C-alpha cells in the first residue's frame, strides 16, 4: 500500500459514472459486487437491505459480526434498511427507484411480482429507469424457481467436469461463477444506460448466472463441440503445476522455440526428437511436462524463474495469497489501499483500470446497516 505521484496530485478527476444513481436490492455476491464496481466507477450506490441486514453480512470469516466477504463486495455504498412487507417501507423503496438511473435486483423471478416491483410497474413511476434483473437460471423455464448458488452453476455448466480431466470433480475454492456473473452484469448495466440514453426509454435487462457462465466457458471449454458434427475428444491439455526443490511454479511455453529452450534449460535437448514424433498435441504436451518434472526438482523456484526469464520462456511462481500482497508488480500498480472502518483498517483493492493516467482509489468502506435511512428517507 505504497503512495505514488498520482495520489499526491491536488486535481482529482471526475469518475466516469459520476452523477449516476444506482439502487441495489441484492444479496450474496453477483449483484452486490456488480454494484460495487459501478460505485468504483463513480456511481452513487444505495444498497437496500432487510431490517435484519443482508443475510450475507454474517457469512464466513468476520470481524465484530461483520463478514469479510460481504465487506469486500459492498464498499463505498450507502445502506438503507427496509421491511418490504411493510407498505410504508415498500413505498420508500419505490421512491428511491423513482430517482434512480439503475435498479439492480437478484431475487428469484416471482419475488418482484409479489412486491409490485415488476419492470412494467416501475417504468410507470420512472420512465428513464434501467432495471437489471439477475437470476440463477432465467426469468422462466423449468429451473426458474430453483435456488442457484455458485457450485451449482459450476456443476451444471460443465466446468467442474471439464476441470477434473478424468479425475474426481471438485469445485474451486473461490466463488468463480458469482464473481464472473458480477463482471458481466456490470457490463450489461453500462450497455443498458447507453441504450436508455439512445432510445430515451426505460430498459429492462435480464441475465442469469447460467447464461453468463455458459458464455464464459464456451470459447475454449467447448472447443471440441463447436462444430455440430464434431465428436472429438478434448484436445486442450491441462496446465500442470510443477514442483521445484523448494516449492512450485507454472510454466507456459507456447511456441516450438520456447519448448526447445525449456528442454535445453533442464539439460535434456535430446528429448526434442521424441516430442516431434508425437502427433497428438495433447499427448505431446503431457509427455513434455512429464519429462521436465524430475529435473525441475533439482533447483529452487527463484533460480528456475531467473533461468526461464533469460530464455524468454513464460514462467511464474505459485504464490500464496499473502505472498501475492508483497509482489513488487502489485505494489507498483498500487492495487491495494487502506480504508478505515469501525472494525479496524481494511485492505481494499482499487478498480483495475486507469483513466487518462489516473487510478480510481477505493472510495469508502462498506456501510453500517441502515446508516443512510434518515438522510435518504427524511426520517
TrEMBL record:
InterPro entries: CoA-transferase_III_domain, CoA-Trfase_fam_III, CoA-Trfase_III_dom3_sf, CoA-Trfase_III_dom_1_sf. Keywords: Transferase. Pfam families: CoA_transf_3. Gene3D superfamilies: Crotonobetainyl-coa:carnitine coa-transferase, domain 1, formyl-coa transferase, domain 3. Its EC number is 2.8.3.16. It comes from the Bacteria. The keyword Transferase applies. GO terms for molecular function: formyl-CoA transferase activity. The keyword Transferase applies. This is Putative lipid metabolism-related protein. It comes from Pseudomonas fragi. The lineage of its organism: Bacteria, Pseudomonadati, Pseudomonadota, Gammaproteobacteria, Pseudomonadales. The gene is frc_4.
